[in-house]
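1st attempt posting a full record on here, be nice pls
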Amino acid sequence: MKLQTIGACAIAVGIAAAFQPAVAQTAPAGSSVTVYGIMDAGVEYRTRNAADGKGMWRVNSGGLNTSRLGLRGSEDLGDGMKAVFNLEGEVNLDSGASGSALWGRYAYVGLEKKNLGTVMLGRNSTTVYDFVLPHDFMGYAPQYSYLTSTATVPATGFTSRVSNAVKYVGKFDAVTLGAHYGFGEVAGATGSNNAYGFGAAYAKGPVSAQLSFDEGRSGGTEAVPASTRNRSVVGSGSYDLGPAKLYAGLRATTRAPAAPSAANPHYRSDLWWLGASAPLSQAVTLYGGAYYENKRDTDSSPLMFAAKITYNLSKRTWLYAVAASAHSSSDDGAHVKTGVFRDQTPLASQQSGFGVGVQHRF
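the predicted structure (as C-alpha cells):
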C-alpha cells in the first residue's frame, strides 16, 4: 500500500512538473495565438456540367474565397526577433469535409527578425502566389479566376502551395523580396520532385507591381531522375485611380515533360488579364474584367469574362454575387475544352455560371 502511495505521489509530481512549463507558456509576455477563418458558401448554377450538355445547381463552398480555418501565433524573443507559426486548412462548407490535408494551406514555423525578414520551414504558399494575388481583380476566387490555373484541357498555371519548403520574405520600405525552395525528398535525385521560386514586389501610393518566377518538377526517381518541369514567369500590377482601381498582368507558362506524349504533352501558354474595381457606395463594390490565354501548342485560346459585386453588411460579413462566361476559339478536339470552374474537368468549349452567397471572416 505504501509503495502504491509513493508511486502515485511520484506520478502526480511528474505530471505537475510536466504541466508546469506548459501552463507558464500559455500566455507569456509578448506572445499571441489567433484563431481565424473565412466561412464562404453560396448557391450556384453552371451550364454544360455533363457530357450531354445539361446544367446543374449546387451549394458551393468558397464561391468568393476558399473557406478556411487557421491558427497563427508569435512569441517575442527579444532584440527584434520573433518566433512565428501558422496552421491553416480548407473547410468545405457544403459537405463539412476538410481539404486534401488537415493543414493543407499552411503548416510552418519560423523566425522573424526586424529589418531582415522572416524565414519559415514547412508547407507554405509560393512566392509567385503571394506577390500576384493582390493584382487579380477577382481576388483569386476558387472557380472564377484563371490566374493560378486555367480551367482547360490541358490545365495550365503555376503552383500555389509547396511542401517541405524553406521560404524567405523580407520587407524593405516599399520593396518586398521573396524566395522559396521545396525539397523533392527523392533519395539520390536532388533535382526531382522539387520546387523553387523568387520575386520582387513594389507598393507605394497608388502603384503596386511585381515580377516573379516559379518552377516545379514532378516525378523522377534515383534510377530515372528526369521529371516534368512546370515553369512560370509572372508580371503584374495595379493602379488606384481613386474612383476606380485597375489590374493587369501576364503569366507565361511552359510545361516540359521528360518524355512527351499525348497524355503528357509539352505546352506553352501566355495568360493575359485586365480588370477593374470601383466602389458604388460605402457598402457596395463592383469588380470585373477578362482573362485571355494563348495556348501556343493547341488550337485553343480560352477567353473568360468574370464579374462580382459585394455588399458589406459589416466589417466582417458581406453578401456577394458572381458570374462568368468562358469559351475557347475552336471546337475540334479534347484540347479546346474550357470552363469557368477549376474544380471540375471542362466538358465543352463553352461554359457559363453564376452564384450568390455570403461570406464571414473572423
